[in-house]
Specification:
The protein is an alpha+beta fold.
Length: 157
């Protein structure tokens, strides 16, 4: 009998305080499967890592890979873990920083598209990045990741 271990991802949730209140930075998942979706298609910039790699280091590496910019320095606020519907365990830290979404140069991935066509195409990991108020973020983020917004709000209160 083989025991499957859950895939793990780690990420950084940037936040900033503006004259309109708290905002968080989310990325819209790239590729043709997400192109026409909004609700449930936005995520904390994150990625999978091997259990031998420390989650914090993976979060910083994945931030650079997904957004094409260095992860910000600053105090990291641990927001804990959630288990997504697909069984993936996601660990996130919040970092206060400002980032211009126009500076993003997303990493890419390759997949066969259209399905069963034999053609490999390259797509951006995140096709756009934007700042959201917590309420708006809650409406578009992957359902399980909304817990990170609640935990950040508790920290910021």
């Amino acid at each position: 009998m083989t025991v499957r271990t859950a895939k793990r991802s780690a990420g950084l949730l940037l936040f900033r305080h503006t004259d309109r209140g708290l905002q968080v930075l989310l990325g819209h998942m790239g590729g043709p499967l997400w192109a026409r979706k909004d609700a449930g298609a936005w995520t904390v910039p994150k990625g999978e890592y091997d259990p031998a790699e420390p989650a914090w280091e993976a979060a910083r590496r994945e931030f650079r890979e997904e957004l094409g910019v260095a992860p910000p320095d600053g105090q990291a606020v641990p927001l804990g873990e959630v288990v997504q519907r697909n069984g993936k365990i996601v660990t996130v830290w919040a970092v206060e920083a400002d980032l211009d979404p126009e500076t993003i140069e997303p990493g890419t991935f390759t997949m066969e598209w259209p399905p069963r066509s034999g053609r490999l195409r390259e797509f951006p990991e995140l096709d756009r990045v934007a700042w959201f108020t917590p309420d708006r973020a809650r409406a578009v983020i992957i359902t399980a990741q909304a817990a990170f917004l609640d935990r950040l709000a508790e920290h910021s209160a």
